[in-house]
Please model this.
Amino acid sequence: MNKDKIQGWTEEQLGKVKQKYARLGNTDFDLLAQGKEQQFIGKVRQAYGKTAEEAEQEWDAFKDACGCSSSPSKAA
Model:
């Protein structure tokens, strides 16, 4: 898998996340790139008024549905 294909896949997945969580800002999405998924979920909780359990379940379901939890080699 080449670098351009991986970058394209990553940008596509980020676009899906940004569309789903439009109330969040770019610094919130940067948390995902930094591997800080729990902090990102905390931002989702704050922005959308969800409980910890609701936010985590919604995030897990979203990742499964959009293919965001797959690696680019599996998605290709």
